[in-house]
From TrEMBL:
Record keyword Transmembrane helix present: yes
Transmembrane segments: 33-53, 65-86, 98-120
UniProt entry keywords in alphabetical sequence: Membrane, Transmembrane, Transmembrane helix
Protein name: Uncharacterized protein
Top-level lineage group: Bacteria
């Protein structure tokens, strides 16, 4: 019997952890919201990158690239950062540029779950080729 593939389990668990920690800095409602957003984005990303294309056995760079492109939270953050493109070259007002700066931070944070998934997959392969969790 096969378990959950390492890439999938690590990506979802990391997204849950990041969502809880990031939201708990503000409050319980924010913890629920950020956990839902991070887990939802990671779930969509996992379904597409792991089971549709390029699948679990693909090269790590392909999985990472597709996992980032398929995450809807990354697309929303890219749109928000693109709307505030004028803030980055010269700074701008603090409150007017707060959204685009946070969007860049969200993009970087969304890179962590797929990276953790790749690390967990590599560790499991090196350890003995165990497929499941």
């Amino acid at each position: 019997m096969y378990g959950i593939p390492p890439f999938v389990s690590a990506q979802l668990i990391t997204a849950l952890g990041i969502g809880v920690v990031a939201g708990a800095q503000i409050g319980f409602g924010s913890a629920l919201l950020t956990t839902g957003l991070m887990f939802g984005g990671a779930a969509v990303s996992v379904v597409i990158s792991s089971f549709i294309w390029p699948t679990q056995e693909a090269a790590g760079w392909k999985l990472l690239l597709v996992a980032m492109v398929c995450n809807p939270l990354v697309w929303f953050a890219l749109l928000l950062a693109g709307a505030g493109w004028h803030c980055f070259p010269r700074g701008g007002e603090l409150f007017a540029c707060l959204g685009p700066m946070v969007a860049v931070l969200v993009i970087v944070v969304c890179l962590l779950p797929p990276s953790a998934g790749l690390l967990w997959r590599a560790w499991k392969r090196r350890r003995g080729g165990v497929r499941g969790f």
